[in-house]
Amino acid sequence: MNSVLGKLIQKEFGRNKYKIYCSKLDQKECMDIFCDIYLDLNLSSDEHLSDRLLNLLRTVQLSVKISQIFFYITAGFVFGILALSLMPALLEVKVAAMGVMMVVYLYKLSEYVANRYCDRDVRLVLIYKTALFHLLSEEGK
Predict the structure, then answer these.
(1) CA angle, 91 as apex, 90 and 96 as ends, to 5°?
(2) 18/34 Cα distance (integer angstroms)
(3) Residues ≥6 apart with Cβ < 8 Å to 56
(4) Are 9 and 118 in contact (CB under 8 A)?
(5) Residue 140 has pLDDT above 60, yes or no
(6) Distance between CA atoms of 2 and 139, rounded to whole angstroms?
(7) With helix as H, strand as E and coil as C, how does the chain read?
(8) What is the pTM of this model?
(9) How sure is the predictor about 139, in pLDDT bands with cuts at 50, 70 and 90?
(10) At what angle do helices 30-42 and 119-140 cross, to 10 degrees?
(11) First to last CA, the chain
């Protein structure tokens, strides 16, 4: 599962370039990534750059929101398991309901972990943001 930031980079530049960027990050070739992104963005119009910036900001907000609401998801899961445990119902119904809750919680946990610990994607987004801001500030002059 990729983070939302990784998905953004893949959407903006393609899956192949994302893999190339990841390997360059591992080799500490950040300037190559910046130059490639800058040259790609340089071909875009001002309006398209503004749309990309808006998309970047929304994606970063989504990434932060996923981390912020995970506490509430965990609290709801614990409360739901306790409520099901105390509920007078058939054992099969309780087990089935707890199984469904567990699957949903594990999905949300994997989403949280993927977005919380995506150091590589954060570094790529920071390089992308720097190139984008640089081009937008040049256009304003």
Answers:
(1) 105
(2) 13
(3) 8, 125, 128, 129, 132
(4) no
(5) no
(6) 33
(7) CCCHHHHHHHHHHCHHHHHHHHHHHHCCCHHHHHHHHHHHHHCCCHHHHHHHHHHHHHHHHHHHHHHHHHHHHHHHHHHHHHHHHHCCCCHHHHHHHHHHHHHHHHHHHHHHHHHHCCHHHHHHHHHHHHHHHHHHHHHHC
(8) 0.82
(9) low
(10) 40
(11) 41
Q: Which two tokens stand for residue 64?
A: 């932060």
Which residues neighbour 137 within 8 Å (Cβ) at sequence distance 6 or greater?
A: none
Of 35, 33, 114, the closest CA to residue 70 belongs to 114
Q: Is the model more confident about 87 or about 106?
A: 106
Which pair of tokens denotes residue 18? 């994302």
Predicted confidence (pLDDT) at residue 97 exceeds the cutoff of 90: yes
Are residues 4 and 115 in contact, defined by beta-carbon separation less than 8 angstroms? yes
Cβ–Cβ under 8 Å, residues 37 and 128: yes
Q: What is the mean pLDDT of residues 42-58?
A: 90
